[in-house]
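Exercise 4. Each item below gives a protein and its sequence. For each, produce the structure-token representation.

Item: SixA phosphatase family protein (Mucilaginibacter lutimaris).
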Amino acid sequence: MKKLLLIRHAKATHESGFADFERPLTDKGFQQAELMAARLQANSIQPQILVASPALRTLATANVFSQVLGLPNAITNKTIYDASESALLKVIEGLPQDKDFIALVGHNPGISQVLYYLSGAIKEVPPCSVALIEFELDTWAEIYEATGKLTFYDTPKD
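Answer:
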């Protein structure tokens, strides 16, 4: 069985002066990430590794999850940044086969699209939402449309 935890980055600044790739999290974003990581921990949802976009806001979100969950720093994959649904599916297909539970930290609209494509679940995916999809499959390469089941979904409440 493979499990994929989709995490959308936490709230980032929209202030001018930052290139999109360099946008930092806001104070609220850091609070969201801590809250959601703690909720995962409370529900015994513990991925083995995190794979994240190298954009500042995504990496900062992943770092908070790593710290709270006691995981190693996220592995970065530049394809996740600004990725379409098909690009994210290629990333998922190439995830390390020796890991059965991986968290992918990325951006919308890709995260929402992949959530729907893999599970059929239509969900709002505001900043720092988490969605756990479970697959009755043995390899990441076997994952395709509607093969997963959404087993946990949560968003930070404003």
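Check: The chain has one domain: 10-97+109-144.
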